[in-house]
């Protein structure tokens, strides 16, 4: 984030925040940060960790962009579930929800990539963690300028 120039006055959204580590780093760099997760436990963890670090992070519960409707950001950061889980018949709840990203590992990656352009301001940046297990050449292949 530091290398990308994230700093004071920027609005950074952390999707799938979990413990809030990305949100805390953005806040340390001076950004205004809402952090979103669907898990109540993740929300509590992110709030507690931000508080213990003395950082301002607005933690919200919701599914991806639904927790921040109508908002646009300078930067989106996310470390979403991206591990392929080949058995679609297993229930997706509890701890499994933190890593299970569907049969090809792209369950949330594609949703984030599809929605990101509408949530980013002009010149905005998406920083997204994923794995070669789910096609690193594909994350946002439809975006203009993607190489």
Q: What does this 3D model show about the protein?
A:
By secondary structure, the chain is an alpha/beta fold. The protein has a single domain (12-134), classed as 3-Layer(aba) Sandwich (Rossmann fold), CATH 3.40.50.150. It is built from three helices and five strands; from the N terminus they run βαβαββαβ. The chain has helices at 21-28, 40-52, 109-119; strands spanning 12-15, 34-37, 58-61, 73-78, 120-128. Strands 3-2-1-4-5 form a five-stranded parallel sheet, with helices on both faces. The radius of gyration is 15 Å and the shape is globular. The model has no long low-confidence stretch (mean pLDDT 84).
Structural class: alpha/beta
- Number of distinct beta strands: 5
Number of helices: 3
Main beta sheet: strand number and arrangement?
A: 5 strands, parallel
| CATH topology tier name | Rossmann fold
User: Helicity range of the residues?
Assistant: 10-25%
* Backbone CA Rg: 15 Å
Overall outline: globular
CATH class: Alpha Beta
> How confident overall, as mean pLDDT?
84
Keywords: Methyltransferase, S-adenosyl-L-methionine, Transferase
Family: Belongs to the eukaryotic/archaeal PrmC-related family.
Organism: Streptomyces sp. 900116325
GO biological process, one term: methylation
């Amino acid at each position: 984030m530091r290398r990308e120039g994230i700093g004071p006055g920027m609005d950074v959204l952390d999707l799938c925040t979990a413990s809030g580590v990305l949100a805390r780093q953005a806040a340390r760099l001076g950004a205004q940060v809402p952090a979103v997760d669907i898990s109540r436990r993740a929300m509590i963890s992110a709030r507690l960790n931000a508080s213990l670090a003395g950082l301002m992070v607005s933690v919200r519960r919701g599914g991806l962009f639904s927790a921040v409707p109508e908002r646009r950001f300078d930067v989106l950061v996310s470390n979403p579930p991206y591990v392929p889980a080949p058995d679609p018949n297993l229930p997706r709840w509890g701890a499994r929800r933190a890593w299970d990203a569907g049969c090809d590992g792209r369950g949330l990656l594609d949703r984030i990539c599809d929605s990101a352009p509408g949530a980013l301001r002009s010149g905005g940046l998406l920083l997204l963690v994923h794995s070669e297990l789910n096609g690193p050449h594909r994350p946002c292949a439809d975006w203009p300028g993607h190489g």
